[in-house]
Design goal:
Pfam families: Aldedh. This protein is of the alpha/beta class and 480 residues long. It is 40% helix and 25% strand. The structure holds nicotinamide-adenine-dinucleotide.
């Protein structure tokens, strides 16, 4: 059975403990590889390598740094099909999704930051009348930690690593132990691309062991984390008293507000996608759907009809719209929410069950599920389920829609469907979310700030925001 390796100081090596963790193929419910169970000692080894590499890497010219990142992007592009197959097998997502979204986006992340670093500038302030000029240096922080989740494995891993490296830092990165494969393949690409030894180190293992060791390390000065809100809270408790820079991209419970004056066909098509893409395991999926009362019954019928057409099946099959959810534990968590629905005066309109797929009987397949709720205060609407489950309920008017949308602890994204520009602007201003989409969904320009408010996180990724996060500003004041 394949044993993945850590990538430390430019080499692929086994964990010092010689302990391994099983890695599952969720489409079959079977172990197919093992990953290092790294510990504090492996993080220390990675830290020493990164510290040694930092003076040279932080002094490379922008052109040299950009060239290495472009090499990584181009090798990823060449190996796109292999990476997509690996991502699909490791995560359970449809191969088509990995081919068209996940891996192309990882390529774009490296390309984007290869170019962005050559355009990043800093400010100068002339104190007129005082013969004084101030200018700001943007210094790389040193060794930084990047920790990512399982839902969009390489996509989110590279979304952190690329800007961290572009800004001149050395990195210790930890992918999710549930989806480690493409991070491992990335190590091989980095070696081939000529990334100097120790600049990027990828350490595999459990969150509470290797992840915790990264967060606790006194000389790792910044942590960029994407994952669950509870984990983010724990991280903040550890890292804040150490005065580390923290970027936390956490959970969501995103509202979709559907008004009667919207482009109905476009809304319906996109709402099916924003509900069930990647088995509903995208932090930006719209999981609370609120519909204007006058079109509620029509929407309900059409949404059920379209959802029933979705094929759940083996991820490698072109006909599969949904693959498997990521793990047995996650499948059971999602099912427990569904099984609790009736106690909350909610009604399952379609779906709700595990599916047995021929020749993949032990795989973790779930029906796409729509639940009608009678209150936004129920558990189904207040807690992140992060699976192929959405709720629907009607609203009377714009005021009530806004109140329902904001009545939750989370604040990641929101989607509004309307043709009324004034309403679109009013809601864009008042929705409590870091990202508002109007008449579209998951429409991303990598230059824009990305992140959430409330319990969805602190800080922003994307564009120059990430380069600012991964640098420390230093003001220099000169009198002449
Ligand atoms: P998770 O919080 O369980 O794990 C995320 C990462 O943190 C993993 O690599 C894990 O090993 C690590 N980790 C766990 N405990 C740790 C600790 N004590 N110290 C350091 N690292 C630790 O999240 P998950 O289940 O992998 O991912 C799903 C969650 O991620 C959902 O809540 C989803 O909304 C969120 N998410 C958010 C965004 C966003 O951009 N806001 C994007 C994708 C996913």
């Amino acid at each position: 059975m394949q044993q993945l390796q850590n990538y430390i100081n430019g080499e692929l090596i086994s964990p010092l403990s010689s302990e391994w963790i099983d890695n599952f193929d969720p489409s079959k419910g079977e172990v197919y590889s093992q990953i290092p169970r790294s510990k504090k000692e492996d993080v220390e080894l990675a830290f020493e390598a990164a510290k040694k590499a930092f003076p040279a890497w932080s002094n490379t010219t922008l052109e040299e740094r950009s060239k290495v990142l472009l090499n990584i992007a181009s090798l990823l592009q060449q190996k796109l099909v292999d990476f997509a197959k690996a991502e699909s097998k490791d995560n359970g997502k449809p191969l088509a999704l990995a081919l068209n979204i996940d891996i192309p986006r990882a390529v774009s992340n490296f390309k984007f930051y290869a170019h962005a670093l050559t355009q990043f500038g800093s400010e100068a302030h002339e104190s007129v009348g005082k013969n004084t000029i101030n200018f700001t240096l943007r210094k790389p922080i040193g060794v930084v930690g990047c920790i990512s989740p399982w839902n969009l494995p390489l996509y989110l891993f590279s979304w952190k690593i690329a800007p961290a490296l572009a800004a001149g830092n050395c990195v210790i990165a930890k992918p999710s132990e549930i989806t480690p494969m493409t991070a491992y393949l990335l190590s091989e690409v980095c070696i081939e691309a000529g990334l100097p030894n120790g600049v990027l180190n990828i350490v595999h293992g459990l969150g509470n062991e290797v992840g915790q060791a990264i967060v606790e390390h006194p000389q790792i000065k910044a942590i960029s984390f994407t994952g669950g809100t509870k984990t983010g809270e724990h991280l903040a408790r550890t890292a804040s008293p150490m005065f580390k820079k923290l970027s936390l991209e956490l959970g969501g419970k995103n509202p979709n507000l559907i008004f009667a004056d919207c482009d109905y066909d476009e809304m319906l098509k996109t709402t099916v996608r924003s509900s069930f893409a990647n088995q509903g395991q995208i932090c930006l999926c719209g999981s609370r759907i609120f519909v204007e009362a006058s079109i509620y019954e029509k929407f309900k019928d059409d949404f059920i009809t379209e959802t029933k057409k979705l094929q759940v099946g083996v991820p490698s099959k072109a006909s599969s719209d949904l693959g498997a959810v990521v793990s047995k534990a996650h499948m059971e968590k999602v099912l427990s929410y569904i099984n609790n629905a009736e106690k909350q005066e909610a009604k399952i309109l379609t779906g709700g069950k595990r599916i047995t797929v021929k020749d993949h009987e032990k795989g973790y397949y779930l029906e796409p599920t729509i639940i009608e709720v009678s209150s936004n205060r129920c558990q189904l609407n207040q807690e992140e389920i992060f699976g192929p489950v959405v709720t629907i309920m009607p609203f009377k008017n714009e005021e009530e829609a806004l109140e329902l949308a904001n009545d939750v602890h989370y604040g990641l994204s929101a989607t509004v469907w309307t043709s009324n520009l004034d309403r679109a602007m009013r809601l864009s201003n008042t929705l409590e979310a870091g990202i508002v989409w109007v008449n579209t969904w998951l429409n991303r320009d990598l230059r824009t700030p990305f992140g959430g408010i409330k319990d969805s996180g602190v800080g922003r990724e994307g564009g120059f925001e990430a380069l600012r996060f991964f640098t420390e500003p230093k003001n220099v004041c000169i009198q002449y």
